[in-house]
Amino acid sequence: MTDILVNSEKLAKQYKIGEVVVNALGGIDFKIETGAFTAFVGPSGSGKSTLLNIIGCLDKPTTGKILVLETDVSGLNRRKAAAFRGENIGFIFQDFNLIPVLSAAENIEYPLIMVQKWPAGRRRRRVSELLEAVDLSAQADNRPDQLSGGQKQRVAVARALAAGPRMVLADEPTANLDSETAGRIISLMRSIRDSFGTTFIFSTHDKRIVDKAEQVFFMEDGLLRQEGAA
User: Fold this and answer.
1) Is residue 87 part of a domain?
2) Mean pLDDT of the chain
3) CA 164 to CA 41: how far, in whole Å?
4) Integer Cα distance of 174 and 183 in angstroms
5) Neighbours of 134 (CB within 10 A)
6) Is residue 208 assigned to a domain?
7) Three-state SS at 121
8) pLDDT class of 2 with cuts at 50, 70, 90
9) Lowest mean pLDDT among 81-90, 111-120, 129-138, 170-179
10) Which residue blocks in the chain are alpha helix, DSSP H?
């Protein structure tokens, strides 16, 4: 039987803006398999980013249940949610979210210091391995303002993988990249998945990501309208 990494049951999220109640997620059910390249696709406001935030323990559902690695993350308090994220989940963002004053190597190392607290020797070895994996060894000492957009996103990919997470959540990771660079980043993430079995879960408009995904969920108005394989 295939391992299920994420299992959602009647997952709903509501926000109140003044007197208006916004239904960001409308009670959705889905499962994501371990090692899958999975994409949530839909227009802006469809609920994709809200869903990724809940899977990543950055937000909680209003009602319903979501299991990640067989843990009911909807019931975790703030401290336990942070610990769960640090141990199991990496994040990639469309605007890179690199720390400007740190070098590429230091940005990759950062979660190993702040979250995992790895010893220095082990951190250096891991950072070196990841820089080589994303073909940035020569740019290890460069700060973000000395890197191209594609290089910044490769640093972000390496940082997301630093602690060896079971899954990586990527919110529009190619939105700020030109077509050629985006294609290379997608191929890099697919190669990492194939090599290490890391589950990648995307919120995206990018057809190239959808075309590479084995599992695709189409979202509209907080609901899953269709599910299929690319």
Assistant:
1) yes
2) 91
3) 26
4) 8
5) 22
6) yes
7) helix
8) low
9) 111-120
10) 48-55, 78-88, 104-114, 120-133, 149-161, 179-196, 207-212
Length of the chain in terms of residues written = 230
How would residue 21 be classed by pLDDT, with cut points 50, 70 and 90?
A: confident
121 part of a folded domain: no
- Tokens found for residue 19: 């007197």
Checking 44-49 for CB contacts under 8 A at 24+ apart, the result is 46/219, 46/220, 46/221, 46/222, 47/13, 47/219, 47/221, 47/222, 47/223, 48/171, 48/203, 48/204, 48/219, 49/171, 49/203
| Sign, Cα dihedral of 73, 203, 41, 44 | positive
Q: What is 19-62 written as a DSSP string?
A: TEEEEEEEEEEEEEETT-EEEEE--TTSSHHHHHHHHTTSS--S
Tell me, what amino acid is at 94? Q
Whether residue 123 is predicted with pLDDT greater than 90 in this model: the reply is yes
Write the secondary structure of 141-161 as one string of H (helix), E (strand) and C (coil).
CCCHHHCCHHHHHHHHHHHHH
> Domain tally for the chain?
1
Give the max Cα distance, the chain: 54
| 151 is a domain residue | no
The CATH number of the domain where 22 resides is what?
Answer: 3.40.50.300
Taking the model in full, what pTM does it have? Answer: 0.91
pLDDT of 227 over the 70 cut: no
Range of the domain at 207: 4-96+160-228
